[in-house]
Amino acid sequence: MDLPYRIAKRYFFSRNKRSFISLIARIAMAGVGVGTMAMVVVLSVFNGMEDLNRKIFKTFDSDIRVMPTEGKRFNVSDSLLKAVRSVEGVKVVTQVIEDNALARYGNLQTIIRLKGVDESYITRGQLDSALIEGSLKLYGSNGTPYAIIAEGVRNALSISLAEILTPIELLYPRSGTKTLNLTSSEAFNQIPIRPGGIFFIETRYDDYIIAPLSIVESLMQYQGQRSALEVQTGPEFSEKKVSKALGEKLGKDFLVKDRDALNADLLRAIRVEKLFVAVTLSLIILVAAINIFFSLSMLAIEKKKDVIMLYALGATPSLIRKIFLAEGAIVAFSGALAGLILGTGLCWLQMQYGFVSMGMASSLVDAYPVKLIWGDIFFTGAIIVIITVAVSYIPARRAAETGLMERV
């Protein structure tokens, strides 16, 4: 065993438990332990929130979205679709028309986000887990078109799937209309459609109505144009790599984004919050570790005779510094190890049993999301090492210098 560590270990365990120095050391150990536990838990919660948001996005958003670089719409040709499908990793291509519209049901009306999709949308199976009533279908057995409605729209319009005689009326401003008179039926194109299913994901998708592409195309007068192409990749392919390949294939006329890029602002906000929380908790651990500074400073005074004796036996200033650095490391790492064990234990219990609830009836998950990442544990350990060296170095250097002067 290394000599400095053996001496430091003896100092740590042989102290009088009633001594003030020992009390400060244990306070420092407890502070580092609590700070470490808090950092592990909080960083894991942010990881869980990021993971939860990705699951929410995956329920509705496509893996990759192809949009025009300029304008809101573009022409879709067979050659374009063939070029998209030729890229390795592309599994399903869905043609999409999407814009704001007005929905009316009975005497109620509301602004909605109308999304027209072709039949391939249903085969993607994304909304299967979000369906709460009805069925996911765009056409009935007799060819009747159906709309898939968000829970928020259903509540705003008081839509009942059992009421088969009352359709939803979709309204969209007619192209070329210079003045929009909301009371005039001439200002809008209008198409009725029956509600077929209700889905709920979370509030950001609560204004959506999904309808057959041909119905929306006729309503909005797109005449063969589309607002986007949605691409679903194979499970064994990376979305980022397929997105990059599509961008290179289609050229500068198209903007190609994967799901993370489409939701980059929210994911970036979570990461920035996580960074600031990590810095804040690091400062808290630093404040707790300052007790190590005072503990080592007083220990250096108490063990002055021992230091002089070690010098007499041939010790060097470097050895003395290592002894007190090792002493600080024992105090800090003991607390950090306990904190890491408690923190990971709490996270594991939350993942397994979900003791802490989200507290929201509309949440997709009952328990608070937590995800342990070993990189965060390594980061926490690195912070502890840096802080320990920072607060232990000055007392260790002073102990070596004081003993050397006393010897002289």
TrEMBL record:
Its main location: membrane. Residues 27-156 form the MacB-like periplasmic core domain. Residues 281-400 form the ABC3 transporter permease C-terminal domain. The keyword Heme does not apply. Keywords: Cell membrane, Membrane, Transmembrane, Transmembrane helix. Pfam families: FtsX, MacB_PCD. GO terms for biological process: lipoprotein localization to outer membrane. Signal peptide: none annotated. It is found in: Cell membrane. The chain crosses the membrane at residues 20-46, 275-301, 331-353, 373-396. The keyword Cell membrane applies. It is a multi-pass membrane protein. Coiled coil: none annotated. InterPro entries: ABC3_permease_C, Lipoprotein-release_system, MacB_PCD. It comes from the Bacteria. Belongs to the ABC-4 integral membrane protein family. LolC/E subfamily. This is ABC transporter permease. It comes from Dyadobacter psychrotolerans.
